[in-house]
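Annex B, item 7. Sequence and C-alpha coordinates for protein A, then protein B.
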Amino acid sequence: MKTILHKANTRGHANFGWLNSFHTFSFGKYNNPERNNFGALRVLNDDTVSAGMGFGTHPHDNMEIVSIPLSGDLHHQDSTGRNEIIREHDVQIMSAGSGISHSEVNANKDKEVKFLQIWVFPKLQNITPRYEQKSFLPADRIDQILNVVAPDNKDAIFINQDAWFSLGNFSKDFSIDYQIKKPGNGVYAFVLSGNVVVNDQALEARDGLGIWDTDTIQFQASSDAEILLIEVPMQ
Protein backbone atom coordinates (compact mmCIF):
# COMPACT_ATOMS: atom_id res chain seq x y z
CA MET A 1 0.00 0.00 0.00
CA LYS A 2 1.15 3.52 -0.85
CA THR A 3 -0.14 6.79 0.57
CA ILE A 4 0.32 10.53 0.16
CA LEU A 5 -0.81 13.01 2.82
CA HIS A 6 -1.97 16.55 2.09
CA LYS A 7 -2.67 18.51 5.27
CA ALA A 8 -5.27 21.26 4.98
CA ASN A 9 -2.76 24.03 5.68
CA THR A 10 -0.48 22.93 2.82
CA ARG A 11 -3.07 23.61 0.10
CA GLY A 12 -2.74 26.42 -2.40
CA HIS A 13 -4.82 29.50 -1.62
CA ALA A 14 -6.31 32.34 -3.62
CA ASN A 15 -8.53 35.10 -2.25
CA PHE A 16 -10.07 37.49 -4.77
CA GLY A 17 -12.51 39.07 -2.34
CA TRP A 18 -15.59 37.57 -3.94
CA LEU A 19 -13.90 34.13 -4.12
CA ASN A 20 -11.91 32.40 -1.39
CA SER A 21 -10.46 29.18 -2.81
CA PHE A 22 -8.20 26.45 -1.48
CA HIS A 23 -6.51 24.17 -4.03
CA THR A 24 -5.47 20.62 -3.15
CA PHE A 25 -3.77 20.34 -6.56
CA SER A 26 -2.06 22.85 -8.84
CA PHE A 27 -4.60 25.36 -10.14
CA GLY A 28 -4.43 28.93 -11.42
CA LYS A 29 -1.41 30.69 -9.95
CA TYR A 30 -0.79 27.83 -7.51
CA ASN A 31 1.71 25.62 -9.32
CA ASN A 32 3.22 22.76 -7.35
CA PRO A 33 4.81 20.11 -9.62
CA GLU A 34 4.53 17.56 -6.81
CA ARG A 35 0.77 18.13 -6.60
CA ASN A 36 -0.50 18.20 -10.18
CA ASN A 37 -2.96 15.35 -9.75
CA PHE A 38 -3.76 12.07 -8.02
CA GLY A 39 -4.18 9.59 -10.85
CA ALA A 40 -7.14 10.78 -12.93
CA LEU A 41 -8.13 13.30 -10.22
CA ARG A 42 -6.90 16.65 -11.53
CA VAL A 43 -8.57 19.39 -9.42
CA LEU A 44 -10.08 19.52 -5.93
CA ASN A 45 -10.99 23.11 -5.11
CA ASP A 46 -12.68 24.13 -1.88
CA ASP A 47 -14.50 27.35 -2.82
CA THR A 48 -16.44 30.02 -0.95
CA VAL A 49 -18.25 32.55 -3.17
CA SER A 50 -19.69 35.80 -1.82
CA ALA A 51 -23.40 36.63 -2.08
CA GLY A 52 -24.49 37.32 -5.65
CA MET A 53 -21.01 36.76 -7.09
CA GLY A 54 -19.57 33.96 -9.20
CA PHE A 55 -17.69 32.66 -12.22
CA GLY A 56 -18.66 34.28 -15.54
CA THR A 57 -19.13 32.23 -18.70
CA HIS A 58 -15.97 30.31 -19.59
CA PRO A 59 -15.13 27.23 -21.72
CA HIS A 60 -14.05 23.68 -20.89
CA ASP A 61 -13.37 20.56 -22.92
CA ASN A 62 -12.52 16.91 -22.22
CA MET A 63 -12.93 17.06 -18.47
CA GLU A 64 -15.45 15.56 -16.04
CA ILE A 65 -16.41 18.41 -13.70
CA VAL A 66 -18.23 17.60 -10.45
CA SER A 67 -19.74 20.30 -8.22
CA ILE A 68 -20.84 19.51 -4.64
CA PRO A 69 -22.45 22.40 -2.70
CA LEU A 70 -21.68 22.17 1.02
CA SER A 71 -23.93 25.09 1.97
CA GLY A 72 -25.95 27.59 -0.03
CA ASP A 73 -27.11 27.46 -3.65
CA LEU A 74 -25.23 27.65 -6.94
CA HIS A 75 -26.79 28.89 -10.20
CA HIS A 76 -25.50 26.95 -13.22
CA GLN A 77 -26.00 27.97 -16.86
CA ASP A 78 -24.31 26.45 -19.90
CA SER A 79 -24.21 26.43 -23.68
CA THR A 80 -26.44 23.34 -23.88
CA GLY A 81 -29.30 25.50 -22.55
CA ARG A 82 -29.15 24.25 -18.99
CA ASN A 83 -30.32 26.73 -16.35
CA GLU A 84 -30.28 25.04 -12.95
CA ILE A 85 -29.92 25.71 -9.23
CA ILE A 86 -27.58 23.28 -7.44
CA ARG A 87 -28.41 23.10 -3.74
CA GLU A 88 -26.87 21.64 -0.61
CA HIS A 89 -27.10 17.82 -0.76
CA ASP A 90 -27.07 17.91 -4.58
CA VAL A 91 -24.26 16.54 -6.72
CA GLN A 92 -23.81 17.83 -10.27
CA ILE A 93 -21.62 16.57 -13.09
CA MET A 94 -20.82 18.26 -16.37
CA SER A 95 -19.01 16.22 -19.00
CA ALA A 96 -17.31 18.94 -21.03
CA GLY A 97 -16.50 16.52 -23.84
CA SER A 98 -15.99 18.17 -27.23
CA GLY A 99 -16.53 21.62 -25.67
CA ILE A 100 -18.95 23.52 -23.46
CA SER A 101 -19.20 26.98 -21.88
CA HIS A 102 -20.80 27.57 -18.50
CA SER A 103 -21.16 29.99 -15.61
CA GLU A 104 -21.56 29.31 -11.88
CA VAL A 105 -22.90 32.09 -9.68
CA ASN A 106 -24.05 32.27 -6.07
CA ALA A 107 -27.84 32.11 -6.41
CA ASN A 108 -28.39 34.09 -3.21
CA LYS A 109 -27.91 37.81 -2.58
CA ASP A 110 -27.74 37.46 1.21
CA LYS A 111 -25.35 34.58 1.98
CA GLU A 112 -22.23 32.89 0.66
CA VAL A 113 -22.13 29.53 -1.05
CA LYS A 114 -19.52 26.92 -0.22
CA PHE A 115 -18.86 24.15 -2.71
CA LEU A 116 -16.29 21.67 -3.96
CA GLN A 117 -15.26 21.84 -7.61
CA ILE A 118 -13.61 18.61 -8.74
CA TRP A 119 -12.11 17.75 -12.13
CA VAL A 120 -11.41 14.23 -13.35
CA PHE A 121 -9.69 13.34 -16.63
CA PRO A 122 -12.23 11.52 -18.87
CA LYS A 123 -12.11 7.97 -20.14
CA LEU A 124 -13.36 8.82 -23.65
CA GLN A 125 -12.36 12.00 -25.48
CA ASN A 126 -14.62 14.42 -27.37
CA ILE A 127 -17.96 12.95 -26.30
CA THR A 128 -21.13 15.01 -26.71
CA PRO A 129 -21.26 17.37 -23.71
CA ARG A 130 -23.70 16.22 -21.04
CA TYR A 131 -25.06 17.33 -17.69
CA GLU A 132 -26.62 15.49 -14.76
CA GLN A 133 -27.72 16.50 -11.28
CA LYS A 134 -29.24 14.58 -8.40
CA SER A 135 -30.05 15.11 -4.73
CA PHE A 136 -28.77 12.66 -2.10
CA LEU A 137 -30.35 12.69 1.35
CA PRO A 138 -27.97 12.98 4.34
CA ALA A 139 -29.99 10.26 6.12
CA ASP A 140 -28.86 7.79 3.44
CA ARG A 141 -25.18 8.16 4.37
CA ILE A 142 -25.32 8.02 8.18
CA ASP A 143 -22.74 5.45 9.28
CA GLN A 144 -22.39 4.16 5.75
CA ILE A 145 -20.66 5.05 2.49
CA LEU A 146 -23.10 6.28 -0.15
CA ASN A 147 -22.03 6.10 -3.80
CA VAL A 148 -23.07 9.34 -5.57
CA VAL A 149 -21.00 9.31 -8.81
CA ALA A 150 -20.29 6.14 -10.82
CA PRO A 151 -19.99 4.69 -14.32
CA ASP A 152 -22.17 1.69 -13.40
CA ASN A 153 -24.78 2.64 -10.78
CA LYS A 154 -28.25 3.83 -11.85
CA ASP A 155 -28.79 5.37 -8.39
CA ALA A 156 -25.70 7.60 -8.79
CA ILE A 157 -24.91 10.17 -11.48
CA PHE A 158 -22.90 8.94 -14.45
CA ILE A 159 -19.25 9.80 -15.05
CA ASN A 160 -17.23 9.20 -18.20
CA GLN A 161 -14.44 7.47 -16.29
CA ASP A 162 -13.87 4.35 -14.17
CA ALA A 163 -14.31 6.55 -11.10
CA TRP A 164 -16.57 6.44 -8.06
CA PHE A 165 -17.38 9.30 -5.65
CA SER A 166 -18.88 8.44 -2.26
CA LEU A 167 -20.00 10.39 0.80
CA GLY A 168 -20.16 9.25 4.42
CA ASN A 169 -21.48 10.85 7.62
CA PHE A 170 -19.89 8.91 10.46
CA SER A 171 -20.75 8.88 14.17
CA LYS A 172 -17.92 8.97 16.68
CA ASP A 173 -16.19 5.58 16.99
CA PHE A 174 -17.90 4.20 13.89
CA SER A 175 -15.66 2.10 11.67
CA ILE A 176 -16.08 0.78 8.14
CA ASP A 177 -13.99 -0.69 5.33
CA TYR A 178 -14.05 0.55 1.73
CA GLN A 179 -13.40 -1.96 -1.04
CA ILE A 180 -11.62 -0.69 -4.16
CA LYS A 181 -14.06 -1.14 -7.04
CA LYS A 182 -11.58 -1.59 -9.89
CA PRO A 183 -8.07 -3.10 -9.75
CA GLY A 184 -5.41 -0.44 -10.25
CA ASN A 185 -7.56 2.36 -8.85
CA GLY A 186 -6.65 4.52 -5.88
CA VAL A 187 -8.81 6.50 -3.46
CA TYR A 188 -8.44 10.12 -2.42
CA ALA A 189 -10.08 10.58 0.99
CA PHE A 190 -11.02 14.20 1.79
CA VAL A 191 -12.36 15.04 5.26
CA LEU A 192 -15.17 17.59 5.12
CA SER A 193 -15.57 17.87 8.90
CA GLY A 194 -14.50 16.13 12.07
CA ASN A 195 -11.66 13.69 12.65
CA VAL A 196 -11.10 10.33 10.98
CA VAL A 197 -8.34 7.73 11.12
CA VAL A 198 -7.72 6.20 7.69
CA ASN A 199 -5.45 3.14 7.72
CA ASP A 200 -3.81 4.40 10.96
CA GLN A 201 -3.34 7.94 9.57
CA ALA A 202 -5.17 10.56 11.66
CA LEU A 203 -6.94 13.20 9.54
CA GLU A 204 -8.67 16.46 10.46
CA ALA A 205 -11.11 18.67 8.57
CA ARG A 206 -9.97 19.46 5.01
CA ASP A 207 -7.03 17.05 5.16
CA GLY A 208 -6.64 14.74 2.17
CA LEU A 209 -5.05 11.29 1.94
CA GLY A 210 -4.37 9.44 -1.30
CA ILE A 211 -4.19 5.64 -1.02
CA TRP A 212 -3.30 3.13 -3.72
CA ASP A 213 -1.79 -0.32 -4.29
CA THR A 214 -4.34 -1.86 -1.93
CA ASP A 215 -7.75 -3.53 -2.11
CA THR A 216 -9.28 -2.33 1.16
CA ILE A 217 -9.18 0.93 3.12
CA GLN A 218 -10.16 1.19 6.79
CA PHE A 219 -11.95 4.18 8.32
CA GLN A 220 -12.46 4.93 12.02
CA ALA A 221 -14.23 8.11 13.12
CA SER A 222 -12.55 9.82 16.09
CA SER A 223 -15.48 12.28 16.28
CA ASP A 224 -18.64 12.84 14.30
CA ALA A 225 -17.27 13.33 10.81
CA GLU A 226 -18.11 13.78 7.13
CA ILE A 227 -15.88 12.40 4.41
CA LEU A 228 -15.70 12.38 0.61
CA LEU A 229 -14.05 9.45 -1.17
CA ILE A 230 -12.89 9.78 -4.78
CA GLU A 231 -11.79 6.53 -6.41
CA VAL A 232 -9.95 7.02 -9.70
CA PRO A 233 -7.62 5.15 -12.07
CA MET A 234 -3.98 5.72 -11.17
CA GLN A 235 -2.70 5.20 -14.73
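Protein B:
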Amino acid sequence: MKRIIALLWIGGLVLLSGNAWGRVIVVAQDATWPPMEFINEQKEIVGFDTDFMKAVAKEAGFKVEFKNVAWDGIFGGLAAGKYDAVCSSVTITEERKKTMDFSVPYFKVRQALVVPKNSSAKTLEDMKGKTLAAQIGTTGYLAIKKTEGVVPKSYDEIGLAMEDLFNGRIDGVVCDDPTAAQYALQKAEYKEKLKVAAVLDTGDEYYGVAVQKGNKKVLDLINKGIKAVQAKGIDKQLRVKWIGQ
Protein backbone atom coordinates (compact mmCIF):
# COMPACT_ATOMS: atom_id res chain seq x y z
CA MET A 1 0.00 0.00 0.00
CA LYS A 2 2.80 2.40 0.87
CA ARG A 3 4.43 1.65 -2.48
CA ILE A 4 1.18 2.46 -4.33
CA ILE A 5 0.80 5.75 -2.44
CA ALA A 6 4.42 6.66 -3.17
CA LEU A 7 3.96 5.93 -6.86
CA LEU A 8 0.82 8.02 -6.92
CA TRP A 9 2.67 10.86 -5.20
CA ILE A 10 5.56 10.67 -7.68
CA GLY A 11 3.08 10.50 -10.54
CA GLY A 12 1.39 13.62 -9.21
CA LEU A 13 4.71 15.45 -9.22
CA VAL A 14 5.34 14.40 -12.81
CA LEU A 15 1.91 15.68 -13.83
CA LEU A 16 2.53 18.92 -11.96
CA SER A 17 5.87 19.42 -13.69
CA GLY A 18 4.10 19.07 -17.03
CA ASN A 19 1.69 21.81 -16.07
CA ALA A 20 2.24 25.52 -15.62
CA TRP A 21 4.95 25.67 -12.95
CA GLY A 22 7.10 23.13 -14.81
CA ARG A 23 6.76 24.97 -18.10
CA VAL A 24 9.45 27.34 -19.27
CA ILE A 25 8.27 29.72 -21.99
CA VAL A 26 11.07 31.28 -24.03
CA VAL A 27 10.18 34.79 -25.17
CA ALA A 28 12.00 36.62 -27.97
CA GLN A 29 12.53 40.37 -27.81
CA ASP A 30 14.31 42.77 -30.14
CA ALA A 31 15.96 44.74 -27.34
CA THR A 32 16.47 47.95 -29.32
CA TRP A 33 13.15 49.67 -28.60
CA PRO A 34 13.31 51.71 -25.38
CA PRO A 35 11.47 52.02 -23.07
CA MET A 36 9.64 48.84 -24.08
CA GLU A 37 12.65 46.50 -24.43
CA PHE A 38 16.32 47.42 -24.46
CA ILE A 39 19.74 46.50 -23.05
CA ASN A 40 20.78 48.31 -19.88
CA GLU A 41 24.30 49.13 -18.68
CA GLN A 42 24.53 45.70 -17.05
CA LYS A 43 23.87 44.06 -20.46
CA GLU A 44 20.45 42.84 -19.32
CA ILE A 45 17.20 42.98 -21.28
CA VAL A 46 14.88 45.38 -19.46
CA GLY A 47 11.83 47.49 -20.19
CA PHE A 48 8.05 47.58 -19.98
CA ASP A 49 7.50 44.44 -22.08
CA THR A 50 10.14 42.52 -20.15
CA ASP A 51 8.63 43.35 -16.77
CA PHE A 52 5.16 42.79 -18.19
CA MET A 53 6.01 39.24 -19.30
CA LYS A 54 7.61 38.50 -15.93
CA ALA A 55 4.35 39.57 -14.27
CA VAL A 56 2.32 37.51 -16.75
CA ALA A 57 4.45 34.45 -15.99
CA LYS A 58 4.05 34.91 -12.24
CA GLU A 59 0.28 35.27 -12.48
CA ALA A 60 -0.16 32.29 -14.82
CA GLY A 61 2.31 30.07 -13.02
CA PHE A 62 5.05 29.47 -15.58
CA LYS A 63 8.71 30.38 -15.87
CA VAL A 64 9.92 32.81 -18.53
CA GLU A 65 13.27 33.17 -20.26
CA PHE A 66 14.16 36.00 -22.65
CA LYS A 67 16.11 35.80 -25.88
CA ASN A 68 17.39 38.86 -27.74
CA VAL A 69 16.57 38.45 -31.44
CA ALA A 70 17.00 40.94 -34.30
CA TRP A 71 13.67 42.26 -35.59
CA ASP A 72 14.16 41.20 -39.21
CA GLY A 73 14.28 37.53 -38.23
CA ILE A 74 12.13 37.47 -35.12
CA PHE A 75 8.94 36.11 -36.72
CA GLY A 76 10.82 33.57 -38.82
CA GLY A 77 12.35 32.20 -35.63
CA LEU A 78 8.92 31.95 -34.05
CA ALA A 79 7.57 29.99 -37.02
CA ALA A 80 10.60 27.68 -36.85
CA GLY A 81 10.01 26.97 -33.16
CA LYS A 82 13.24 28.56 -31.92
CA TYR A 83 11.25 30.12 -29.06
CA ASP A 84 7.68 30.01 -27.80
CA ALA A 85 6.53 33.61 -28.07
CA VAL A 86 7.44 37.13 -29.14
CA CYS A 87 6.71 40.02 -26.78
CA SER A 88 8.48 42.92 -28.42
CA SER A 89 6.09 45.82 -29.12
CA VAL A 90 4.35 43.71 -31.76
CA THR A 91 1.26 45.37 -33.21
CA ILE A 92 -1.62 43.00 -33.89
CA THR A 93 -2.45 43.23 -37.61
CA GLU A 94 -4.64 41.18 -39.93
CA GLU A 95 -1.61 40.42 -42.10
CA ARG A 96 0.40 39.07 -39.16
CA LYS A 97 -2.55 37.00 -37.94
CA LYS A 98 -2.28 34.93 -41.11
CA THR A 99 1.02 33.44 -39.96
CA MET A 100 0.91 33.65 -36.16
CA ASP A 101 -1.58 33.78 -33.30
CA PHE A 102 -1.90 36.66 -30.85
CA SER A 103 -2.78 37.05 -27.21
CA VAL A 104 -5.43 39.44 -26.05
CA PRO A 105 -4.26 43.07 -26.54
CA TYR A 106 -2.20 44.49 -23.69
CA PHE A 107 -1.04 47.98 -24.79
CA LYS A 108 -2.59 50.67 -26.99
CA VAL A 109 -0.03 52.47 -29.13
CA ARG A 110 0.09 55.24 -31.71
CA GLN A 111 2.66 56.24 -34.31
CA ALA A 112 4.59 59.46 -33.81
CA LEU A 113 6.61 61.70 -36.10
CA VAL A 114 9.99 62.87 -34.80
CA VAL A 115 11.69 65.77 -36.60
CA PRO A 116 14.33 68.43 -35.92
CA LYS A 117 13.14 71.27 -33.69
CA ASN A 118 13.36 73.76 -36.52
CA SER A 119 10.98 71.76 -38.70
CA SER A 120 7.44 73.07 -39.26
CA ALA A 121 6.02 69.64 -40.18
CA LYS A 122 2.86 68.52 -38.40
CA THR A 123 1.79 65.55 -40.57
CA LEU A 124 3.37 62.94 -42.80
CA GLU A 125 2.00 64.83 -45.78
CA ASP A 126 4.10 67.83 -44.73
CA MET A 127 7.17 65.67 -45.34
CA LYS A 128 6.70 65.32 -49.10
CA GLY A 129 10.02 65.35 -50.90
CA LYS A 130 11.86 64.54 -47.67
CA THR A 131 13.42 61.34 -46.36
CA LEU A 132 11.42 59.61 -43.64
CA ALA A 133 12.80 56.64 -41.75
CA ALA A 134 11.50 53.81 -39.59
CA GLN A 135 12.57 50.37 -38.43
CA ILE A 136 12.04 47.81 -41.16
CA GLY A 137 8.91 45.67 -40.89
CA THR A 138 7.18 47.93 -38.37
CA THR A 139 3.81 49.63 -38.63
CA GLY A 140 5.71 52.93 -38.67
CA TYR A 141 7.48 51.89 -41.85
CA LEU A 142 4.18 50.79 -43.39
CA ALA A 143 2.72 54.23 -42.62
CA ILE A 144 5.66 55.89 -44.39
CA LYS A 145 5.32 53.62 -47.41
CA LYS A 146 1.66 54.60 -47.75
CA THR A 147 2.45 58.34 -47.77
CA GLU A 148 2.72 59.71 -51.27
CA GLY A 149 5.73 61.86 -52.08
CA VAL A 150 8.04 60.97 -49.19
CA VAL A 151 11.29 59.06 -49.60
CA PRO A 152 11.13 55.98 -47.32
CA LYS A 153 14.24 54.63 -45.63
CA SER A 154 14.38 51.56 -43.42
CA TYR A 155 16.76 50.71 -40.60
CA ASP A 156 17.46 47.48 -38.74
CA GLU A 157 17.32 49.38 -35.43
CA ILE A 158 15.34 52.50 -34.48
CA GLY A 159 18.35 53.88 -32.62
CA LEU A 160 20.32 54.07 -35.88
CA ALA A 161 17.49 56.04 -37.49
CA MET A 162 17.40 58.47 -34.58
CA GLU A 163 21.16 58.92 -34.76
CA ASP A 164 20.95 59.80 -38.45
CA LEU A 165 18.11 62.23 -37.74
CA PHE A 166 20.15 63.86 -34.99
CA ASN A 167 23.10 64.22 -37.36
CA GLY A 168 20.98 65.69 -40.16
CA ARG A 169 21.26 62.75 -42.58
CA ILE A 170 17.47 62.26 -42.80
CA ASP A 171 14.45 64.51 -42.23
CA GLY A 172 12.19 62.53 -39.90
CA VAL A 173 11.53 59.25 -38.09
CA VAL A 174 8.23 57.46 -37.50
CA CYS A 175 7.93 55.01 -34.61
CA ASP A 176 5.68 54.02 -31.70
CA ASP A 177 4.90 56.96 -29.44
CA PRO A 178 6.59 55.64 -26.25
CA THR A 179 9.83 55.14 -28.18
CA ALA A 180 9.51 58.50 -29.92
CA ALA A 181 9.15 60.20 -26.55
CA GLN A 182 12.10 58.26 -25.14
CA TYR A 183 14.45 59.53 -27.83
CA ALA A 184 13.10 63.02 -28.51
CA LEU A 185 12.05 64.10 -25.03
CA GLN A 186 14.20 62.17 -22.57
CA LYS A 187 17.60 61.41 -24.11
CA ALA A 188 19.81 64.30 -23.02
CA GLU A 189 21.87 64.39 -26.21
CA TYR A 190 18.78 64.43 -28.47
CA LYS A 191 16.14 66.53 -26.75
CA GLU A 192 17.86 69.83 -27.57
CA LYS A 193 17.64 69.13 -31.31
CA LEU A 194 14.61 66.84 -31.79
CA LYS A 195 10.88 67.01 -31.08
CA VAL A 196 7.74 64.92 -31.45
CA ALA A 197 5.94 66.89 -34.16
CA ALA A 198 2.75 64.85 -34.28
CA VAL A 199 0.96 61.77 -33.05
CA LEU A 200 -0.46 60.19 -36.17
CA ASP A 201 -3.95 58.88 -36.81
CA THR A 202 -3.16 55.31 -37.85
CA GLY A 203 -6.32 53.76 -36.41
CA ASP A 204 -6.60 51.48 -33.41
CA GLU A 205 -3.24 49.84 -32.83
CA TYR A 206 -2.56 47.39 -30.00
CA TYR A 207 0.38 45.29 -28.95
CA GLY A 208 -0.10 41.57 -28.45
CA VAL A 209 2.12 38.61 -27.60
CA ALA A 210 2.69 36.50 -30.72
CA VAL A 211 2.89 32.71 -30.60
CA GLN A 212 3.36 30.05 -33.24
CA LYS A 213 0.20 29.42 -35.26
CA GLY A 214 -1.96 26.83 -33.49
CA ASN A 215 0.04 26.77 -30.22
CA LYS A 216 -3.06 26.93 -28.04
CA LYS A 217 -1.37 25.69 -24.84
CA VAL A 218 1.12 28.54 -24.73
CA LEU A 219 -1.46 31.07 -25.90
CA ASP A 220 -3.93 30.07 -23.18
CA LEU A 221 -1.26 30.36 -20.47
CA ILE A 222 -0.18 33.79 -21.68
CA ASN A 223 -3.78 35.02 -21.96
CA LYS A 224 -4.47 33.80 -18.43
CA GLY A 225 -1.51 35.78 -17.13
CA ILE A 226 -2.34 38.94 -19.11
CA LYS A 227 -5.91 39.00 -17.85
CA ALA A 228 -4.74 38.62 -14.25
CA VAL A 229 -2.11 41.37 -14.67
CA GLN A 230 -4.74 43.72 -16.11
CA ALA A 231 -7.31 42.85 -13.44
CA LYS A 232 -4.81 43.70 -10.69
CA GLY A 233 -3.64 46.91 -12.36
CA ILE A 234 -0.05 45.70 -12.58
CA ASP A 235 0.19 46.87 -16.20
CA LYS A 236 -0.70 50.41 -15.10
CA GLN A 237 2.04 50.34 -12.46
CA LEU A 238 4.57 49.23 -15.07
CA ARG A 239 3.45 51.98 -17.43
CA VAL A 240 4.17 54.59 -14.77
CA LYS A 241 7.55 52.98 -14.05
CA TRP A 242 8.76 52.85 -17.64
CA ILE A 243 6.79 55.50 -19.50
CA GLY A 244 5.40 57.90 -16.93
CA GLN A 245 1.88 59.25 -16.49
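Comment on protein B: The domain at 110-200 is CATH 3.40.190.10 (D-Maltodextrin-Binding Protein; domain 2).
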